[in-house]
């Protein structure tokens, strides 16, 4: 927990913002939400990114690389003090003022600022986002830019912004090997909840990880873990008895990334076995093997970097 009582470990950007808003609202505080609704050029944050502001100026998240947050927070506090409302804020390079309230990177962004209340961003939607993500489901919210009102399942309007909240990011690693020991903390820093699966007692020793290791067979463990659209599954064992059932379960799920370590020869044999089990070429093409971007990785740490980089590439290319 951080000083505000917010769980920071293994939390992605959206977790931090939404969990902070939920905590503050439960404590009876007034809250405003800033959302990037449009970008041009080299804007540092994507559309849909959030900054949440408490009535005393405490905030979480970001809508730029630090260029405009100060002004957004000031205007958010003004809205809260006025009893609620919304504003559209547009920022770009302002030459002499670029380091005050502008984007020194050269891009432009538009931000919608709303108070979290029934007329603008209803508090119940914060809980809906939390619940949907926990269930592994995406949630779409539409905002009428003329009234500043955000609703679920709203009909498209002439001037509106649609934001899709994805499921929480999760990573299941099959094989409690050396690479897994390095991939776990890297993935957590990138916002993934991690699970390590290995039924081999000597590999699954809890002392090798700072989290419990699931000692069930991979197919049983993944049946309970239930990969969803925010999930990645990576098998690191090189052992068909463990790799194949794990990959079969992953292929039968909506996991956004499936990877398996091993040489090209090993991977070809793996695909042949899974093909004989009934998987089509199209389905087998979802498996990234050997897992990881070809960065010339040498050693467990660099291999872990290459795998996380490939996961990120697939995750972002799907949006």
TrEMBL record:
Superkingdom of the organism of origin: Bacteria
Signal peptide range in chain numbering: none
Domain XdhC- CoxI: 24-91
Residues of the XdhC Rossmann domain: 171-311
Pfam family, one: XdhC_CoxI
Name of the protein: XdhC/CoxI family protein
């Amino acid at each position: 927990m951080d000083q505000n009582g917010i769980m920071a470990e293994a939390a992605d950007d959206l977790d931090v913002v939404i969990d902070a808003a939920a905590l503050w609202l439960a404590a009876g505080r007034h809250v405003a939400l800033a959302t990037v609704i449009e970008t041009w050029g080299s804007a540092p944050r994507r559309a849909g990114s959030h900054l949440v502001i408490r009535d005393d100026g405490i905030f979480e998240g970001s809508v730029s690389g630090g260029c405009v947050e100060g002004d957004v927070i000031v205007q958010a506090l003004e809205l809260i003090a006025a009893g609620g409302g919304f504003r559209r804020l547009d920022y770009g390079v302002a030459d002499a003022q670029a380091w005050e309230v502008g984007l020194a990177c050269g891009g432009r962004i538009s931000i919608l600022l709303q108070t979290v209340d029934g007329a603008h961003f209803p508090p119940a939607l914060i809980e809906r986002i939390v619940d949907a993500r926990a269930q592994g489901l995406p949630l779409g919210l539409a905002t009428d830019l003329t009234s500043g009102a955000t609703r679920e399942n709203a009909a498209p309007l002439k001037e509106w912004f649609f934001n899709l909240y994805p499921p929480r990011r999760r990573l299941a690693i099959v094989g409690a090997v050396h690479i897994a020991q390095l991939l776990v903390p890297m993935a957590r820093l990138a916002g993934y909840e991690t699970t390590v699966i290995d039924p081999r007692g000597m590999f699954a020793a809890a002392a090798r990880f700072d989290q419990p290791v699931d000692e069930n067979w991979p197919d049983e463990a993944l049946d309970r873990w239930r990969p969803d659209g925010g999930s990645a599954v990576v098998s690191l064992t090189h052992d068909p008895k463990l790799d194949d059932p794990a990959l079969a379960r992953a292929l039968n799920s909506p996991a956004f990334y499936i990877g398996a370590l091993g040489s090209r020869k090993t991977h070809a044999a793996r695909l042949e076995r899974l093909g004989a089990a009934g998987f089509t070429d199209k389905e087998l093409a979802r498996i990234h093997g050997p897992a990881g971007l070809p960065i010339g990785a040498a050693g467990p740490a660099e291999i872990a970097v290459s795998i996380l980089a490939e996961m990120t590439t697939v995750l972002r290319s799907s949006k």
